[in-house]
Known about the structure:
The chain has helices at 26-29, 36-40, 96-102, 147-153, 162-168, 170-174, 227-230, 242-258, and strands spanning 5-8, 11-24, 55-66, 69-73, 112-114, 127-130, 133-136, 142-146, 178-181, 186-188, 192-196, 205-211, 214-218, 262-264, 273-278, 283-287. It is of the alpha+beta class. Strand 11 and strand 12 (205-211) form a beta hairpin.
Amino acid sequence: MDVHTYQIGDARITKVTETLLQGLTPSFLYADWSDEVLHEQPQLRSLLDDTGTSVVLSVHTWVVEWADQVFLIDTGIGNGKERPFSKLFHQLETPFLERLAAIGIAPEGVDHVLLTHLHADHVGWNTRLVDGSWLPTFGNARYVMPQGDLDFFATPAGDSRRMVYDDSVAPIIAAGQAVAMATEGGSYLDAFRFHPTPGHCRGHMSISFRSQGETALFTGDVMHTPIQLYRPEWNSAFCHEQVQARQARQWLLDYAADHDAMLFTAHFPDTSAGRVSRGDQGFEWQFA
Ligand SMILES: [Zn+2]
């Protein structure tokens, strides 16, 4: 598997792939879908699979090595999790930990896990099954998670995904390894900052990292493909709050362009990383 590594200031950032999600048609992903965007931006056709009828999404973790510490940004779907609501997530088995090991990261060597939100494809490797119990995979890590999503799970609305909380979040809290990030966001170890970007879900946050004047931005699920740079008003089928999701996307794209940030996305295919610029027609995307 290709390993892409990026240098942002003093940090080394590496993608560790878990799996690819296939079979989502653009018109399912985006209710406002129109082929017109592919005529305007022919390079976007490369985002489609071989049949040209569905988009490919990546699920992965970003590993940040900085100041002699190891940070993971989001933890994928996880192995062996009961997910009856998604056949793409249900009882997945991948060699994700072996892939982490291949870049020199052992579970006990992870110091911090930073979570953009508490959905099934972002918290899965928080835990693994040990003798019939879900236990923290990264036993020495502090897991930083949005208070807004914890609040969501405290309401009846959270019942539809209760199993995600029970097997991937509650064991972290029980182990005393959870740290809640306030709804208004804030900094973490100076170099990281959590920015509220609600819409995809109530507590969603994007995470910036700055070092030596360079900026990385871990977007989370504010966008699912580069198509949304060319149609920022298009929400995905997974956006819960329509108005906020559009506002968050606009904020994030402006922030990225203003700070010349390298974007580290949660689901873009290919390298999943790249830069945003402003062109004549609006935002433009370049994979890096
Ligand atoms: Zn996601």
